[in-house]
Write a structure and sequence with these properties.
Blueprint (H helix, E strand, L loop, with lengths): L4 H13 L2 H8 L3 H15 L4 E3 L4 E3 L1 H29 L3 E7 L1 H18 L3 E7 L13 E5 L7 E6 L5 E5 L1 H7 L14 E3 L9 E5 L2 E5 L5 E3 L2 H9 L5 E4 H10 L3 E3 L10 E6 L6 H12 L5
Parallel strand pairs: 3-4, 3-5, 8-11
Antiparallel strand pairs: 1-2, 5-14, 6-14, 7-12, 7-13, 9-10
Amino acid sequence: MNLDLADLKLLSTVARHLSFRMAAQELDLSASAVSHAVRSIEERLGVRMFSRTTRSVALTPAGRQLLDRVGPALQDIAAAIDGINDFRDTPQGLLRINAPRPAGELVLGPLVAEFLTRHPKAEVELVLDDGFVDIVAGGFDAGVRYGESLQQDMVALPLGPAQRLMVVGAPALLQLVGTPHTPRDLLTLPCVRIRFPSGARYAWEFEKAAEKVAVDVEGRLTVGEMPLMLQAALAGVGFAYMYEPYARAALASGALVSVLDDWCPPIPGFYLYYPSRKLPTATLAAFIEMVKAAQWPG
């Protein structure tokens, strides 16, 4: 004697209309199919749910008792399903994004602020981490990475404008040690190095006329993030290699100058990515649409 949710919904619909024909219209079934289903339920229960004549349908005492008991539960279930539909249709709840620090500081900050303004029911947790993170295992909805480090089973789209890494130094440093003219000149000059969370030290990468050079510079200071590298460069500790936006204000004021510009062409920007096998939530879908529609400076 088993009834499932579909059986209870059918009985409740017939009881609400007291008409097989009208219940059939709501359920998108034929009246004969509804009548047959009710008869099958009654046979399984061993008791009549409805008294019917050629002119009318009425609940039996057993039918009324059952539906009085299960009616509130069916309403709760319907409300719960409607709540799920809200999550599907309306951006709400928590969106977790993992990104390297430069992406968070240069691109995601303003974008997330605008997203939260547009969608007051949404929340965002932005975790900045320069290491390689498995976003699925880490419970993230999406991640941000450089194009060459994306996994094949991910959907990716450009996030932000093209970027440019550049070498900068304080004027006093250039007066003291001279100006480098090729990337290899940096091997004999003081530099501020940067180390990834993995422990690997970043070799500065340059390109000019199809020639690519990677230089593992020397220096007495190694840091883990570019804002610290900027501070060290301003203090004259050594040359620094960083994304241009970090140094923009210092370059404009003359506190820093750039060198080796012809070896530092623009490079592709960041990418937002998410699992291709996972259906995006309404919140992630709304964020994706914002990224697609964003107008980035050239």
